[in-house]
Specification:
Elements lengths: L2 H6 L1 E10 L4 E8 L5 E7 L8 E6 H8 L8 E2 L5 E7 L4 E8 L8 E10 L10 H27 L1
Antiparallel strand pairs: 1-8, 2-7, 3-6, 3-8, 4-5, 4-7
Length: about 160
């Protein structure tokens, strides 16, 4: 991800949670606009269990809590630290599930950070007639720089 885009990310949530031994923890994530890029990252201590993170819809999280299948929209690999991305097709509530069932040796404290990038639909372009003027001015400026440089080299 480019540094410019990283500067546009806004923190949705950040904090520490404890994921119980051989269990999972659900965290609400609110997405305000369709098309929003969500960046989720977590970090567990070196002596903690490996954790796997999933982003799911609220309906899928409720089915999962009742024993149904988990259908993640995005997920990390089991690790002590990971970052993954997800583009929300719709605005609404999503759930970040932190799963400690892989190793499940002990309750694991996890630092979680979720950031969002506004949807691409908010980016505007220059109107066509103004774009032509800008392009022409750019080409003329480039030609002026080339002519000046050639003149200086010829001296």
């Amino acid at each position: 991800m480019t540094p410019l885009l990283l500067g546009l990310l806004s923190v949705v949530l950040e904090g520490d949670v404890v994921v119980p031994q051989s269990h999972w923890r659900a965290i609400d994530v609110r997405v305000a606009h369709a098309g929003t890029l969500v960046k989720a990252s977590f970090r567990a201590p070196a002596d903690g269990s490996r954790v796997q993170a999933y982003i799911v819809t609220r309906a899928n999280a409720e089915r999962f809590a009742q024993g149904g299948a988990l259908r993640p929209l995005a997920m990390s690999s089991p690790a002590r630290e990971s970052t993954f991305y997800f583009v929300a097709e719709r605005a609404g509530d999503y759930i970040l599930l932190l799963d400690n069932r892989m190793e499940g040796r002990r309750a694991t404290p996890v630092h979680v950070r979720v950031e969002s990038l506004p949807p691409a639909s908010t980016v505007r372009t220059v109107p066509p007639e103004r774009r032509r003027v800008v392009e022409l001015a750019s080409v003329l400026f480039f030609l002026a720089v080339v002519a000046y440089s050639a003149r200086q080299l010829m001296k």
